[in-house]
Structure formats: C-alpha cells, structure tokens
UniProtKB/TrEMBL annotation:
The lineage of its organism: Bacteria, Bacillati, Bacillota, Bacilli, Bacillales. The keyword Protease does not apply. ATP binds at residues 14, 208-212, 283-285, 331-335. One of its GO terms (biological process) is acetyl-CoA biosynthetic process. It catalyses: acetate + ATP = acetyl phosphate + ADP. This is Acetate kinase.
Length: 402
C-alpha cells in the first residue's frame, strides 16, 4: 500500500510517500512560501535527481496538484498514476479532548478540527486546507488524521489543569493539551528499544527541540506532563515563540504599547524567542555561528534557550521522582552539539556522565551521548513523525477493509 503523508503548515506543505509493506520512502519533498509568486518546491524522488522549482503557488490546492503531478511525472515521478496512492495521512496539531487516537476523516471529524481553529490558529486552518486540497484532487482516496495532542491525553488532571476558575475548563475547555505527541511517543518507544529495557519500567524525559519545541515526562510509556499547554506557545523558548512568561505581561504590554489581541498574539508567537533576543534569526544554526563569532546577543539568546530547557528537565525529574533517560530529538535536538553539551554539563547532579566524543559523532543515527555507566542515560533519537502517521493511516484503512 502506498501512503502519502502530508504536514500542511500555513505557508508550507511537507510530504512523504511511503510504500508500507517494503518500509520505503518512494519520494519526499516540500513546498514553501505558498501564497507567493515565488513559491519554492523541492521534490526528492528515490534514486532520482532532486527537482527544484520556483513558481507561483497561491494556495494549498495548487500545491497538492503540483506534488501529485510530480509523483506521476514520467521523468521525476515514482508512480504510474495517482490511482496508486491508496490513502493519505495528515498531521493535525490540535485534536482537543475529542481525539485520543488517530481517525479516518469524515464530516464530523472535519467539523471538530474546524471548531479547534481558535486553539491552534497557526496550525489547524492550514491542516484543513491540506485535507480539502486532497479531497479536491483525489475525491475517492481515504484520508486519516494523526493528532499531536492524542499521546498527551493520558496526563492526569494535576498536570493538565491550570489554577484558574474551573468554569474556564468546563465552559471553554481551557486546559493543557500538549503537542508533538507523535514525536514524543515515537522516540520513547525507540529509546526503550535502544536501551533494551521494557518501556513500562522507564521514566523518560523527551526533548523535541525543533522550530517549535517541547519536553515531555513519560512514565511507563505514558505522557504524564508536557511543556506546551492549551496552545503550542507555552513552555520552552522557541525560534519565534516566547514560551513561558508572567501572564501579567500580556495586559501590561497591551496597555503600554496600545496593542490589540491579534497584535500581542502575533508578537508572542512570531516575533519572540531566539529571533527577538538575538535580533538576528530564529534558526539555531545562525545563532550558534554568530555566537562563535563573538555576537553578544546571539550568545544571550543561546544561553536563555538552554537555561529554560535545563529547568524543564529538572522539573520533570522531580515530577516523576527520578529519570532513567533523557532523549534529544528534532532539528535542534538532533543536530546542535553545542546545545546538548551545555545542557548535559549542568545535569551532573542527576548523575549524568556526558560523553563529549560521542556527542560529536554519529549524526543521523540513534545514539548514546552519555557514558554507558552513566546513572541517567542520554540519547539522541532522530524523530520520524511521518512514519508514525503512515503506520496509523495504514492500520485505519486496513481495519475498514477487513
Ligand atoms: N546543524 C544544526 N545545528 C543547530 N540547529 C540546527 C541544525 N540543523 C537544523 N537546526 C535547527 O532545527 C530547526 C528546525 O527543526 P525542525 O524539527 O525541522 O522544525 P519544524 O519541524 O518545527 O519546522 C531549525 O530552525 C534550526 O534552528
Ligand atoms: C505544535 C508545534 O509547535 O508544531 P511545530 O513545531 O511544527 O511548529
Ligand atoms: Mg516539526
């Protein structure tokens, strides 16, 4: 079975086409700057040269149409026709309390994703565009949705409730949901396999540090706490998101700077984090390079980012009364030697024995960056959200046809 996995963002669309039985990726790619005259499409078919295209792509339906055309292209394609795409799986960031696992798309599911627009304004509207674009181009193909929030639905009330009037929860579902669940779930499974220990017996802290970033406390394979909250804004400092701050700053800044709700929300989501402190970039690669070249603001941004991450690791060790392993994943977690080194050098109190040489080798592989005898093991596990989405989609489609 061939399954197309789509992660639709507001101005981007990433895709991977899996052949499930052979466990292979037939093609993958991304469309960036959707909505502009100079949208960029990068298509990487298996065993064939990459395709780069710059053209006008004004909305997601066109982006999907272009992707489908490339997948069946005589020269760059990997399929004879789109009829060979048997199902499509989508990443959906917010599933609220309604979705505890992945589901096939139907009218009710789409209505519920739309009801959640308010809670994930950067993400859910884009996912709906992706789902509608597939419907428009391939009306008969089954679609599944895999939620970032689903894995965290095991959190106990002490972790998911905020200490505010309960009416906000009862009436408006104000609570912690948590995100990146597909990734936290996947890397915790892989960590148990790597350590050769049953997941049920492990206390893990997984750090998904990408453009968006979150930590999770995972006990016996279940999420018991996570740093993102009602929306993907809470918790760690991120590329452009502030993460935790005193909530009183919001009305204070709105008053002083005469900001609307939309403007303050945009400030905290799109103009904060690494970008705001460095005044340079939201990209950890650029921050690290500038810091090494002596840029003081980049150094401060890096130090704040690391300090806030380290505090969450301490909090989750306390939350679980111990930790067996800490896992780094996603763009920054998998690639930033400097960040991992600085975090681990401040975890000696937990019994972490950092292996500096191991930290500098094995990029792209699952690996240990603590010593083998370290009381708390530290691992780097490349995440693979797309693979999990493809598997879930496969299982759902199989269950309806058998
Ligand atoms: N070699 C590297 N060193 C440091 N950071 C890196 C490196 N490669 C990628 N990154 C960081 O990874 C981030 C993207 O992570 P990713 O998980 O792909 O994010 P997302 O899926 O949220 O778009 C980039 O913003 C960049 O800062
Ligand atoms: C939920 C979230 O923050 O996702 P991303 O990291 O893809 O922005
Ligand atoms: Mg990501």
């Amino acid at each position: 079975m061939n399954i197309l996995v789509i992660n639709a963002g507001s101005s981007s669309l990433k895709y991977q086409l899996f052949h499930i039985e052979n466990d292979t990726v037939l093609a993958k790619g991304r469309v960036e700057r959707i909505g502009m005259e100079t949208a960029i499409l990068v298509h990487e078919p298996k065993d064939k040269p990459e395709v780069h295209e710059v053209s006008e792509i004004l909305e997601h339906t066109t982006a999907i149409r272009k992707v489908l055309a490339l997948l069946v292209h005589p020269e760059h394609g990997v399929l004879a026709s789109t009829a060979e795409i048997h199902a499509v799986g989508h990443r959906v960031v917010h599933g609220g309390e309604s979705f505890k696992s992945s589901v096939l798309v139907n009218h009710e599911v789409k209505q519920e994703i739309k009801r959640l627009f308010d809670l994930a304004p950067l993400h859910n509207p884009a996912h709906m565009l992706g789902i509608s674009a597939v419907e428009a181009n391939m009306p008969d193909v089954p679609q599944a949705v895999v939620f970032d929030t689903a894995f965290h639905q095991t959190m106990p009330a002490q972790a998911y409730l905020y200490p505010v009037p309960m009416a906000l929860y009862r009436k408006h579902k104000v609570r912690r949901y948590g995100f990146h669940g597909t990734s936290h779930n996947y890397v915790s499974d892989r960590a148990a396999a790597f350590l050769g220990r049953p997941l049920e017996q492990l206390k893990l802290i997984t750090c998904h540090i990408g453009n968006g970033a979150s930590c999770a406390a995972i006990e016996g394979g279940k999420s018991v706490d996570t740093s993102m909250g009602m929306t993907p804004l809470e918790g760690l400092m991120m590329g452009t998101r502030s993460g935790d701050l005193d909530p009183a700053i919001v009305p204070y800044a709105m008053g002083k700077e005469d900001l609307t709700i939309g403007e303050i929300s945009s400030m905290l989501n799109k103009h904060s984090g690494l970008q705001a402190i460095s005044g340079l970039s939201s990209d950890m690669r650029e921050i690290t390079e500038a810091m090494e070249a002596g840029d003081k603001n980049a150094k401060l941004a890096f130090e704040m980012y690391e300090y806030r991450l380290r505090k969450y690791i301490g909090a989750y060790a306390a939350a679980m009364n111990g930790v067996d392993a800490i896992v780094f994943t996603a763009g920054v977690g998998e690639n930033s030697e400097a960040l991992r080194k600085r975090v681990c050098e401040h975890l000696t109190y937990l019994g972490v024995e950092f292996d500096d040489a191991a930290n500098r080798t094995g990029r792209g592989l699952e690996r240990r960056i603590s010593t083998v005898n370290s009381k708390v093991q530290v691992l780097v596990i490349p995440t693979n959200e797309e693979w999990v989405i493809a598997r879930d989609t496969y299982d759902l489609v199989q269950s309806t046809t058998h």
